[in-house]
Amino acid sequence: MSLPAGTERTVEKEKGYEEVSVPPTPTAAREGVARVPISELPTHVQMAFRGVESLNQLQSAVLHTALYSAENMLVCAPTGAGKTNVALLSIMQLVGTRIEGSVLQRDKVKMVYIAPMK
User: Fold this and answer.
1) pTM, two decimal places
2) What is the pLDDT along the chain (118 residues), one digit of tens a residue?
3) For every residue of 11-58, which 3-state class applies, written as one string?
């Protein structure tokens, strides 16, 4: 994995941690992301997003990783940018792997979602 240009790393050996500062993506690079309609998502995901017409730009940009892979992600975005729905997409990825014959095998699903508060 590579980090974008301008990333700064500070290692605090005495304190036992490393701090990584990643610069924001330029606005021009984000403008090309097409918003994905909810109707294009699998049925079980559409049910979770009932009442929503489309994913926003952030959610659309990370859709493949969040919903169609089990890769780890780190999503850093301001309040209100849609991070909770990105987490929901990731949850739906796991749920999708536990559907057999259109039936969710609830006894095979276990997950923990932690949302820290200041």
Assistant:
1) 0.70
2) 577 888 998 998 888 899 988 887 766 555 667 899 999 999 999 999 999 999 999 999 999 999 999 888 889 888 899 999 999 999 999 988 888 888 888 888 888 888 777 6
3) EECCCCEEEEECCCCCHHHHCCCCCCEHHHCCHHHHHHCCCCCECCHH
Strand-pair category, 17-21 with 8-12: antiparallel
- DSSP 3-state of 99: strand
- Compute, in degrees rounded to 10, the torsion defined by CA atoms 48, 63, 71, 108: 20
CB burial string 56-68: b at 16+ within 10 A, e below: bbbbbbbbebbbe
Task: Please calculate the CA angle 22-64-71 and round it to the nearest 5 degrees.
Answer: 65
Residues 6+ apart with CB under 8 A from 75: 58, 62, 83, 86
